[in-house]
Write a structure and sequence with these properties.
Blueprint lengths: L3 E8 L3 E3 L12 H11 L4 E5 H8 L2 H4 L7 H12 L1 E5 L11 E4 L3 H10 L5 E4 L2 H9 L5 E7 L7 E2 L9 E9 L5 E8 L1
Parallel strand pairs: 1-6, 1-7, 3-4, 3-6, 4-5
Antiparallel strand pairs: 2-8, 7-10, 9-10
Helix pairs in contact: 1-4
Length: about 190
């Protein structure tokens, strides 16, 4: 059975994006990419909300082929092309994409079925709206929150629609030279 593992950047005051969805405050560099790529290489399934999936689909399939492609572009592009993608969307058509399952109804039941039939973890990259839906149904098993040293004051919260208190167990922290801190928690049930 696969666990759902959330990878999300956060401002220090708990936002995943600005009020208009802006993410230009997120710090990424090769040090952070190397850290995350080590974990990503252990699985082959990703779960996205529609907006994040469209953004990913618009970049990663050809990122390695672009002039000046970075090491990260090449590694993640190769992973993305082969990964099984699961998308929560009421508007996308599954047949339009390769190796992609679109869930447009009864997503808690469908995701539980996918978890039961997946070897390895299912990684959620960003996708605040999908994360909120998953949290509302207690479907997230682990979190990797990359806390950026910035205060936004307002925006799209990392955590929302939680029906009851959720206890977490801190299992690891990692501080990057940029000041970003990764907090890795297991969700206690």
């Amino acid at each position: 059975m696969g666990n759902i593992v959330l990878f999300m950047h956060s401002s220090l005051d708990g936002f995943a994006a600005g009020t208009q969805g802006e993410m230009n405050w997120i710090h990424v560099d090769q040090e952070l990419f190397d850290y995350v790529e080590e974990r990503i290489a252990q699985t082959n399934t990703a779960l996205y909300g529609r907006k994040t999936f469209e953004m990913m689909e618009g970049y990663w399939p050809t990122a390695a082929d672009q002039p000046g492609a970075t090491k990260h572009d090449k590694v993640h592009s190769a992973w993305y092309k082969n990964a099984r993608k699961v998308v929560l969307s009421n508007t996308l058509n599954e047949s339009d994409f390769t190796n992609t399952t679109v869930i447009n109804k009864d997503y808690p039941v469908a995701i539980k079925e996918i978890k039961a039939n997946t070897t390895g973890d299912i990684l959620v990259f960003g996708s605040p709206s999908a994360t909120h839906a998953l949290l509302a149904e207690s479907l997230i098993d682990e979190t990797w929150i990359f806390v950026n040293p910035v205060l936004l004051g307002d925006g799209k919260p990392v955590f929302k629609h939680i029906k009851e208190r959720v206890s977490l167990q801190l299992i690891k922290t990692h501080t990057f030279s940029s000041g970003v801190v990764c907090l890795q928690h297991l969700v206690k049930r």
